[in-house]
TrEMBL record:
Transmembrane segments: none
Biological process (GO), any one: carbohydrate metabolic process
Enzyme class: hydrolase
CDD domains to which the protein is assigned, alphabetical: GH32_FFase (cd08996)
Swiss-Prot/TrEMBL keywords: Glycosidase, Hydrolase
Hydrolase in keyword set: yes
Domain Glycosyl hydrolase family 32 C-terminal: 359-511
GO molecular function: beta-fructofuranosidase activity
Protein name, as recorded: beta-fructofuranosidase
Family per record: Belongs to the glycosyl hydrolase 32 family.
EC number, as in UniProt: 3.2.1.26
Entries under Pfam families matching the protein: Glyco_hydro_32C, Glyco_hydro_32N
Boundaries of every Glycosyl hydrolase family 32 N-terminal domain copy: 44-347
Length: 527
């Protein structure tokens, strides 16, 4: 394929970008002014008002950590995409920055879609993203017309950007509309780009491009095609190397598999974000050595993006409210991101994801208890009202007779709660929302290996924010992220034991401070 990668960026303005940004700021501020904070997070990133989805442009640059995100500033449901922005000096406290991008070019008139950030050979930052417009000019009934775009910051603060324009057009005869979410990296002397594609045969693919100057790109082939013919698009792709215990480089390919059908405990969400581990020779195809594995087994995890800084690989995901009812959309805001996580390749040869160590700096007080024994069908209140806390549990599996043991969080006077428990019959960790009065219900179940089940202990690291939970299992071997919309009244956290007894050999409950974004103003100054 040729003739769809121009020698210079194509720039076609249709609106004044600064004016569009100002309108977006006013839209967010209007929604934030009437925001209901009953589920608004204290230590997760969210927009002060409006809908958010995918994390974008993650980077460390100019002495600050930067997180951008997809934003609809005029409503609490998905709409024309902008880029919101927060930054931090310490990965603990975050500051709101001005909205970074609004639609202002012909190629992006219906949305500035997702993309990534990378530092070039001169130490300058470049932003690659997808420009989106409806093929029929008005709505999604005629499909998408998507292209890849380039922008550059006007200074090191990353508070304003110059759009360079389109750098990769869409060969519409080879693509079934979906064509988005660029990820750029350098291996050797060559810059590479990949993004997700639905081929003309409706197969989920990631295409590979090369460049010497990050402006003129050349198509190099299909990096990877998903073997499942039901998967029609690989959304929000990622690609990066990790070193295994033997010092060998492994490549991790990540994507959200659109079209994958549920299979037992797998693929229970609308679309499912996961990864494969394998090998890659620069310029060639990715060769998987593992099956597709989920990044996160919760109800509400999607579109993760990773980046490299300080020799480590970090990742943030979107807690996606795909399934109605979505009660927070009536509160002036909708959606938040996960905690910042670090990705490592464990001794077992698999991915482990853990909260960044800096998260511990949010702790303000701690309750400690050891060797807590519960009789059958009993509970113990750890704290009568918690809206932002972290719980570390060690459950004694060797002497467990309970069928389910763990936590009830967001337990309110009306009898509502979310269960986070080990289920002995399944041999899995379960988030069960059946007893919740608000939002979607159902349960999700994360697997434990035979070695973990035989080890005699289970470690759970649980974060409870006002409207969501994250569960890290055995040092991040598996993770679960779900919304949990508490009812009115105090929100207790309880240890529970169902149909049998259990012992928690260690219990730690840490109250957590705000990261500085839960004020209602659209631009905060916490630093």
């Amino acid at each position: 394929m040729t003739n769809f990668t121009p020698s210079q960026p194509v720039l076609t303005p249709i609106a004044n970008h600064k004016e569009q940004l100002a309108l977006a700021e006013r839209g967010v501020a209007k929604l934030a002014a009437g925001r209901n904070d009953r589920w608004y997070p204290k230590f997760h990133i969210a927009s002060p008002g409006g809908w958010i989805n995918d994390p974008n442009g993650l980077c460390y640059y100019g002495g600050r950590w930067h997180v951008f995100y997809q934003l609809h500033p005029y409503g609490t449901q998905w709409g024309p995409m902008h880029w919101g922005h927060v930054s931090s000096t310490d990965l603990v406290h975050w500051k709101r920055e001005p909205i970074a991008f609004a639609p202002s070019l012909e190629q992006e008139k219906d949305g500035v879609f997702s993309g990534s950030a990378v530092v070039d050979d001169n130490g300058d930052l470049k932003i690659f993203y997808t420009g989106h417009r409806w093929a029929n000019g008005k709505d999604n009934t005629g499909g998408d017309w998507q292209v890849q775009m380039l922008a550059e910051p006007e200074d090191d603060s990353l508070t304003s950007f110059t759009k360079r324009g389109m750098i990769i057009d869409c060969p519409v005869d080879e693509v079934d509309h979906h064509y988005r979410d660029p990820k750029v990296w350098k291996t050797g002397d060559t810059w590479y780009m990949t993004f997700g594609v639905s081929s003309k045969d409706k197969r989920g693919q990631m295409w590979l491009f090369t460049s010497e100057d990050m402006v003129r790109w050349t198509y190099a082939g299909v990096l990877f095609e998903h073997p499942d013919p039901d998967v029609f698009m690989l959304e929000c792709p990622d690609f990066f190397p990790l070193t295994d215990k033997n010092g060998e480089t492994k490549w991790v390919i990540g994507f959200s598999a659109m079209g994958a059908k549920p299979d037992g405990f797998m693929n229970r969400n609308v679309s499912n974000a996961g990864y494969m581990i394998g090998s890659w020779t620069p310029g060639g195809k990715f060769v998987p050595e593992t099956e597709f594995r989920l990044w996160d087994w919760g109800h509400n995890f999607y579109a993760p993006q990773s980046f490299t800084a300080d020799g480590r690989q970090f990742m943030v995901g979107w807690m996606s409210p795909f399934v109605q009812p979505i009660p927070m959309e009536h509160d002036g805001w909708c959606g938040n991101l996960t905690l910042m996580r670090e990705i490592v390749l464990g001794e077992d040869g698999d991915i482990h994801t853990i909260p960044v160590a800096q998260t511990e700096e949010l702790r303000t007080s701690t309750i400690e208890r050891d060797n807590v024994a519960l009789r059958p069908n009993t509970s113990l209140t750890l704290t009568p009202d918690a809206q932002a806390c972290e719980i570390e549990l060690t459950l004694d599996l060797a002497n467990l007779t309970a069928e389910r043991a763990g936590l009830h969080v967001n337990a309110t006077p009306d009898g509502s709660y979310t269960s986070i428990v080990f289920d002995a019959q399944l041999g899995r960790v379960v988030i069960d929302r059946q007893a919740m009065a608000n939002g979607d219900k159902g349960y999700r179940a994360a697997p434990l290996s035979a070695e973990e089940l035989a080890s005699g202990t289970l470690n759970l690291h649980v974060f409870v924010d006002r409207g969501c939970v994250e569960v890290y299992i055995n040092g991040g071997k598996q993770v679960m992220s779900s919304y949990s919309f508490a009812s009115e009244g105090p929100r207790a956290i309880e240890l529970v034991s169902e149909s049998g007894s259990c012992v928690f050999s260690s219990v730690r409950v840490h109250e957590l401070a705000s990261i500085g974004l839960d004020a209602s103003s659209s631009l905060d100054t916490v630093d």
